[in-house]
Amino acid sequence: MTDLASPATGIARESAQFHLRAGGTSVVVNCPAASLAEVLYWGADLGPLASQALAVWATTGVGVVTGCADIPPRLSLVPTQAEGWLGTPGLVGSRAGLGQFSAFLPVGVEVLASDGTDGAPSELRIRAHDDEADLDLTIDLRLAPSGLLRARAELTNRGEDGYAVDSLLLALPVPATETQVIDQSGHHLRERAIAFHEFTLGAHEQAVRVARAHAASTVHGTCAPGTGWNRGSVHYVHVAWSGNTRTIAERNVVGQNALIGGELLLPGEIVLARGESYATPWLIATWGDGLDAAAARIHGYLRSRPNHPATPRPVTFNAWEAVYFDHSLDRLLQLVAIAAEVGAERFVLDDGWFGARRDDTAGLGDWVVSEEVWPDGLVPLAEAVHASGMEFGLWFEPEMINLDSEAARAHPEWIMSPRTHRPQEARGQHVLDLTNPAAFAHVLGQIRQVLADTRVDFIKWDFNRDVYEAISPLTGRPAYHAQTLATYRLMSTILAEHPGLEIESCAGGGGRVDLGIMELAVRGWASDCIDPLERQQIEAGTSLVLPPELVGSHVASTESHTTGRVLNLTARASTAMFGHMGVEWNLLEASGQERAELTSWIALHKELRSLLHTGQVVHVDHPDAGWSIHGVVATDQQEAVFSLMRVATSPVRPGPAVVLPGLDPDVDYRLVELRPDAVPSSVGYEPHAPESWAWWNDGVTLPGRILSEVGLRFPDLMPERAILVRLTRG
Asked: Most buried residue, 209, 237, 308, 654, by CB count within 10 Å?
């Protein structure tokens, strides 16, 4: 560790600049002598830069104009009015109304790691102090080998009385050429639809206020007009936190453009006593030439973590749509046998095994195996699952409680509620106050007992309602922040006590797939909707944060549980196979031919998953919106798999040529239809493709330059049909 402050006092004697470089990214940080550090640039690698050039660059900020302060306004990492920043403040807080306007002065700067490109710094720690409110501020900047930037701040109260933190946000600049905002919209069953808007003057805010994010944006950024998957400059941020969050894309009249983000705090949530600290969640910041390139930096970072799953992701059969609350052991044992027969490697018993949980109105909070439904406990089912060679998974919803439960009747004070009334019910349930040590111990103790009695390899951890009016009766204060930390602590305790146990994050589907929860979970359930047509956009939006091996994607029932569409098995299976594949289908009702085809699809997934779960995810910017086209290209570019699905009809038939991105332009690739032996051709013409598609039957060999820059016309499909193609070095 190199300390770049004065060795005697730790106080920076003069301005300093630092150039972080890694993974094709440069981050230029200016640390003035008399104010808080700022990021001058964050984007494509600038190559080696002389210290003199950096020092000159630091003097070329925003100029003074009429009607403004006499000093140029600055966008520091935690911007304040003391620096002339008049937009969304980085810090809002006070000592009972006093000390509201902080002016941070530098204390020291440390290089924590110098393992970036050509030995450049990759991690920086910046320390500052504010005399006005007597606060210490520490900011960490970390540039990963993938080129992903992470930033976090910690505020410490050095004063005698309490300091209330209302907001602590971090800010990064974005290029003026990025004149559009990119974010996401959605709702339950249709999460993370990508949207573009004009980046007009002012603050464009996205917020999560109820601890779930179905309707909020997982990412928030800026981009150039016309940006797509493979083109256009884009920068976006993500807050790695499972509670309330806030991100802002802000543009002002003096030409400053910023992305600002952190936790959304309610008044009274964080009041620091003397010596206490508050740390923000990590702000994840990425950029790229196109969305795929930006997402690849996050994927690369996640895959480099020591806790990233290292074993093949087991094909998962979930019994929910097969049995719902009808837990008959005989029926479940039949499903176990069929699931194993088709190639599943994990069998999950979903909701309904505990307490009085015969429907979704009772039982949450009583994590005791129901003697009525399971007189011999869960052991007979778990043993049958293990005997068939599969892992056994079990559903829990530990953060929730029904009023119709033994726990609620005995301890109504464990329910998150304002003083005068209960919050609105959602799905017939309320939120259990895990910040209450007694409630926490109750849930942990009951889960421990279940795991002691039955060998459980996997927990589907659900979270089926928004958190309204989260007031802890224990303190009378808002508890979104503390509840999130308590959830992390509960998960961490269970994982520490059961090495090898895996957790899936489910929140009424895709309401909680942030990178905070994914430090503990190894699988995120992208949506309760597994209709493959809907999943095209859901999984595309999810890919902006999560790589496919962390995204649960299941083969749906023939008739979709959520949309009522009746879809062929090729469309359903070819969609599911690109993620952490699973099956959510009552196989007792499937025909012998359907089971044979499903077996072939699962076998194909197992053959390909080492590629699908390690390669670069790519999507196709195709002029025909009736196509959804995506794929995975191996890191060495020697092979690739693409899915082409016709999601709607088009005014042009056949469609334009399809460009397959990510290929090596100098390699010849052999392209063939990828189809399990038991599965008939997916092309929508019978009995065979027309003569003009004769090459399709035998495949074709073409240079990567033609495939990735000119493209190839594929056989047209009927709506709701899909084909897969495989490319190998020819």
From this structure: 237
